[in-house]
Write a structure and sequence with these properties.
Blueprint: H1 2-51, E1 94-100, H2 106-121, E2 124-130, H3 135-148, E3 153-156, H4 165-173, E4 177-181, E5 201-203, H5 207-221, E6 228-234, H6 240-253, E7 259-266, H7 272-285, E8 291-295, H8 296-309, E9 316-321, H9 324-332, E10 337-340, H10 343-360, E11 365-367, E12 378-379
Parallel strand pairs: 1-2, 1-3, 3-4, 4-5, 5-11, 6-7, 6-8, 8-9, 9-10
Antiparallel strand pairs: 10-12
Helix pairs in contact: 2-10, 3-4, 5-6, 7-8
Amino acid sequence: MKARHLMKLLGAVLAFTLLAAACADSDDDSETTQETAATAQTVAASSDAGDSGDDEPDGATDDGQAAAEPDDEGTADTVAPEEPAEDEPAPEPRRIAYLSASSANTFLLASVGEMQRLADENNIEIVEFDAQFNAELQTTQLQDVIASGQYDGIILVALNGPGLVPDVEAALAGGMQVVLFNQIVGADLSTNEPQVDGIAASVLAPPVVTGERAGRLTIQACEGLDPCRVVYFFGIRGIPLDVALRQGFDSVVVDHPSIQVVAEGEGQYLGPERGINAIQDILQVQPEFDVVVGADQSLQGVELVLTEEGMLGDVALIGLGGSSPAVEGVRDGRWFATVFYAPASEGRLAMEAMIAALADGTITGGVDPNAGFLDEGLVTSANVDQFTAEWDG
């Protein structure tokens, strides 16, 4: 019995020891759990501090980027990029009607190049009308442009300056801006000042003045010759431009009785061929002469014929235009002189005046692109190296 009781007692002691060990383990687990809970509370407190004004917004990662939150299926939502704002439509271009005396004229082609460059830079559309050196056709074109109501402005190279005054007045009354270049609108062909109230600009060398300059060069070429026989080339006989050119020429040479105009031709401002035909006809009736005066295009043809005839060294050529062939001819001694023109500059100045007028109604007034040239643009062997041609003739 005693042994039996002793075994029971030992079993009880062993069971108590195991129970005590289990309780100790439980206490360690509890402390770990409490430490974990305390850590969780600290993290939560830190998160709450972020909500109350921390530098990073809710859900921000360490690099400041928003963290994606899981959706119902456990995947992260993707933040869709904002759609770019649609570009605003470009403003409609302003439309300008360009009424050319002739689209085939090489002088005016140089002007149009500069006009188009500035138009492209300023959202302006140019619509060109070719009058083909036909004054009646140009009048109809101008009236059609005005009646259409589709244009903000008109740039005009007038073939019949006095006759176009009523139509220009109608264009201005219709709210269009009007810029003249190369040719006058009005009765006075000795000035470049606008002769119709409201014209924004008149960019040109007055044709009477140009004729006077040609006359002064003729006097130089005729020095020491008596008589000095001159062949005079019109561009288009009878149009106001050519009437004014001849008027200016005659007003200067009239005081020099040794200067005699012995023949006249017509070149049409359209290149060498007309000059070739005209001078060949003149040679049939007037085989001897000392000076030829005319537009550069005509004189290129005259030079070819006189070279073939062996006469070039005995005849002084005086051009109107300052083209590349004329300037080169003066430099080489084949031409006596030329009256300089700057068609590219004319086109640029005309379009600049139109842009200013469209912007705020600026009135530029009369502009003589030749006024600032050396020696008034009278190109001779003495100054030819100071001039650079703006067109090819």
